[in-house]
Write a structure and sequence with these properties.
With about 110 residues, the chain is mainly β. The protein has 1 helix and 5 strands. The protein has a 5-stranded antiparallel sheet with strand order 1-5-3-4-2, covered by helices on one side.
């Protein structure tokens, strides 16, 4: 049975708008919310949550199709694990001193 080619659009990060893409997970803990949602719903939820530094999910692709478990965080601390993706809220002014650029992601 031939497989359909992957949707290449989900592998192309976009750094326009209210979020900035980073490879890796936001650190454990500091969850504002955890929910099953689409990528578009994750963007909407992150924009609506007070003090949301960004959202993170377990995927090798920067974006996803369908529904996935997404973690919404109030800290920017993270790692560069390629099996996770993070979208940071651009212009976030929370108390976390962690930089937007993580080691290995510059």
């Amino acid at each position: 049975l031939p497989l359909a080619p992957p949707n290449r659009a989900i592998f192309e990060p976009r750094n326009a708008g209210p979020f900035v893409h980073r490879v890796g997970a936001l650190a454990a803990g500091h969850d504002l919310d955890v929910r099953l949602c689409t990528f578009a719903q994750a963007e909407e939820r992150a924009a609506a949550l007070p003090n949301c530094a960004g959202f993170t999910f377990n995927s090798a692709a920067p974006r996803f199709e369908g529904v996935m478990t997404v973690h919404f965080k109030d800290r920017r601390e993270g790692n560069n694990d390629w099996r996770w993706q993070t979208w940071l809220t651009a212009g976030w002014t929370g108390d976390d001193p962690a930089p937007t650029e993580w080691p290995g992601n510059a």
